[in-house]
Amino acid sequence: MRLAVTGREGQVAASLIEAARGRDDVEVVAVGRPVLDLARPDTVFSALEAARPDIVVSAAAFTAVDQAEEEKDLAFAINATGAGKVAETAARLGVPVVHLSTDYVFDGTKDGPYVETDATAPLGVYGASKLAGERAVAAANPRHLILRTAWAYSPFGWNFVKIMLKLAAERDEIAVVADQWGTPTSAFDIANAILHASAMLDRKSVASFGIYHLAGTGATSRSDFARYILDRSRELGGPYAQVHDIAMADYPTKARRPANSRLSMAKFDSVFGWNAPDWRRSTDEIVSRLVLGVTSQASAQTSQ
After folding, report:
1. What domains does the chain contain, in order, with CATH numbers?
2. Which end of the chain has less Cβ packing within 10 Å, N or C?
3. Whole-prediction pTM value?
4. Is 240 considered catalytic here?
5. Is the dihedral of CA 35, 39, 43, 47 positive or negative?
6. pLDDT confidence of residue 198
7. What is the mean pLDDT of the chain?
8. Taking the CA atoms of the chain, what radius of gyration do you get in angstroms?
9. Has residue 258 got a pLDDT over 60?
10. Quick count: other Cβ atoms within 10 Å of Cβ 85?
């Protein structure tokens, strides 16, 4: 099975490449700029055709949430028009597309985990552009898996875990929002879920395609997530700082964030028989890797 994943530097692309390393049943090819540039739709078909994929993983995106408020046209060009072009190309090549989306398609006002049938109501440009991307992907290729995820982190790129460790190395106390809740999700778990589901797609009916939520098991607040990261880091001899709770209202940003980003994985588990590990277990592995320089793949074992 040969997967072509859009983007070279993203957390999921890097995690997919590592997850496939050493396996003889799957190959992952990352296709990114300048060969494939979602802001230039004319580059998409030739780049993906050359990759000869059995499945296309649409992982590249404009993810700078606050910057999207100022660069709306670019955010929609990449997250909506570009994503639709990737799905259209996959359809022309006769293969399914696995597209990554986000919890930001919701407004965060629900009391409890979001399920796939809940009403969408993005609070900002980023969420709106990703929702438009979901619709473009679904319209362009009936063989689609749209995977909404939340609070992704990994040893790659720039994410909450790495930010907390960096700040802890620079100061004794960190202020973190306490009234924002979500499901921390390791990019390695996302990669393993994609590989697991991809291996089953040929045996699934068209009815199995559609929108799914893919996130870590369990929920926590931003501030408690930070505490867990730093407590684990301290145990390993890494940087540590005290976490001070603040409210979302005390930390204004250009883009509004959903207060509740909890996602239910029940549908994905029911259809594909895979559930993510507890977020603490996956966080332990990533923090260990970052603090100790561990080179083995984090979250390598899937949870059945």
Report:
1. 2-158+184-219+261-278 (3.40.50.720)
2. C
3. 0.93
4. no
5. positive
6. 93
7. 93
8. 18
9. yes
10. 23
Structure tokens at 81: 């028009």
CB 197 within 8 A of CB 204: no
Phi, psi of 57 (to 5 degrees): -105, 115
Residue type at 84 in one-letter notation: G
List 126, 153, 228, 240, catalytic entry:
126
Alpha carbons within 13 A on the beta-carbon side of 126: 20
pLDDT in tens, 179-237: 999 999 999 999 999 999 999 987 777 778 999 999 999 999 999 999 999 999 999 99
- What does the pLDDT look like over 98-157, one tens digit per residue? 999 999 999 999 999 999 999 999 999 999 999 999 999 999 999 999 999 999 999 998
- For residues 283-290, give the mean pLDDT: 96
